[in-house]
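Q: I have 239 residues here and want to know how they pack in 3D. Can you give me a structure?
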Amino acid sequence: MSTDGALVLFSGGQDSTACLAWALARYDRVETVGFDYGQRHIVEMTARQDVRGAVSARFPDWAARLGEDHVLDIRGFGAVAESALTADRAIEMTERGLPSTFVPGRNLVFLTYAAALADRRGLKALVGGMCETDFSGYPDCRRDTLDALETALNLGMDRDFRIETPLMRLTKAQTWALAKGLGGETLVELTVADSHTCYRGERGARHAWGHGCGECPACDLRAAGWSAWVAEGRPALTA
């Protein structure tokens, strides 16, 4: 159990829920930070509180280590970095070969704000759900991008932050398996019922893998990962 403390970039989605559990299993103090950047799926800001509440209620040992939650208003950034996540635009591939849901520099901005907050809170680990195995092709999800940013943050703040990405090399099926390994079927059910991934912000009918439109890239990845994990016999993965 590390005493450094961790700040989890927590959106309330499947990936950040797994990361929250991962951090709670390793650090004696874990805080969370969420970002309001004008996202169309603003429902995730409610989902993140639901997930935190459910984690505290169902995992008493983790509840003792789960600290303060922070919500940062960066809607000005969302307006500058307009995308299909922040404006009423079609979700499609652009001429750059990236989905129109790509928000330029989003993870760079998130982690810079998180580092400034972690500096004041005395936390050394910045934990994020970035992944370059099953993802939508965003360049700021790559580990080499985050290594460069980690170096810049430590130089610019004279600190020794660690950007930790426990899902970086995992498929979405393996992320489901990791959830089971960390918190058993209780964490799997919590993730299905309470977390939110859908880019369209839909919380209607519940699918086997959770709530969502079932058509956007985020739902496609989540559903495909669930199907692959179930086909494998729902194994557990311990990181």
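Q: Anything worth noting?
A: The chain has eight helices and seven strands. The helical segments are 14-24, 44-58, 60-63, 75-80, 106-121, 143-157, 172-194, 217-231.
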